Amino acid sequence: MTAPAAAATAVPTPLRVPAFRRFLLANLVSATGSAMAPLALAYAVLGQGGGAGSLGVVLATNSVPTIVFTLAGGVLADRFSRSRILFLGNLLAGLAQGALAMLVATHHATTASIAGCGFASGVAAAFTAPAAAGVVGQLVPADQLLRANALVRLPNNAVKVLGPVAAGLIVAMGGPGWALSWDALSFLVASLLLLGLRLDAPVARAGGALADLRAGWAGFRSRVWLWTYTAAGTVVVAAWLAGYQLLGPLVTAEHYSGARSWGLVQGAFASGLLAGTVLCLRWKPYRLLAVAVATGAGLCLPLAALALGLGLPWVMAAAALAGIGLDVAVVAWNTALQQHVPQGEMGRMSAFNGVGERLAIPLGYLITALAAHAWAGRTVLLVCAGVIAVTTLLNLCVRDVYRVNRR
Questions:
Q1: Which residue among 100, 105, 363, 386 has its CA within the 20 to 30 Å range from the CA of 44?
Q2: Is the CATH number 1.20.1250.20 carried by domain 222-402?
């Protein structure tokens, strides 16, 4: 146990732990910039003459490193100080976004240069995500993990409601360069806050990185609940993103009022995420993994509502319920992982899970796009909703799901 976690023993709330408050503040600061970045990035690409193809290249370049380098990030997170990894990752992301903001503000941005900065940001995310997964367990005692995970999610979800609106105003008044500058500054401030955590490495390791990776894979395969949840997540995440991000805007453009309706649906989903976080601050489910699996099934609701042509208020209600379920699932899953995986393996187990859930996303986009050319968008949306529901039911049939409970 590290010094901060030892000092936190028997505390009534994670907020009494100074190191956790510092970590929480760093998350809040970086979240304000991250919530503005997608809109600013889109308008930066459009502003230099790019279209949908250019934006697709930029988004792909940003996402590829999170698949390629996450396993390496997981190995490092189990060998070195996670607070130092988070500091360096946020610093790299801040420098990359700062360079992008300067290129955009001086009108020297091209698709290639924007994609290059996005690649650097993706590399930073690949190394910080596994480290962040294990930090909370080093900062607070086991009986406070559920509440601590909810508190970590709270600032991220709160700014998701207001961040895009603020970004739209900033881009409209001053251009995307200003929003990207704030994103860069938020990462740099967060890196300075994280520098003060000074957490020790989880365990002393004598073998090499490849030996750690092989041992991590063996540990991942030996935990049936972990690899079955990851396998189900591979399907659910791909079906959700393909249905929501790809077909959602198209269906609302054809059958609703277009961007206005889609904006309301996204706002309802973000509000649901925030409500889910508030719920997790009070609710402490015992069957952590079963709750994570079951509540994740709520993602099929807005897809089904759009597919069935329900009125916009019903679609918004379905999106809000999906947001609530998703956030409960994330908090319950993070807590289950932290309580049932030793600290010395957390980085690698989180990395294998993260890579597994992302692997099928590009294929899901491709299959869904091809299917939308052959069938109506609503029909494909209904299929995506059905895939999520069936996969969830199959995962709930795994016996080990009911053995990973709150300690």
A1: 363
A2: yes
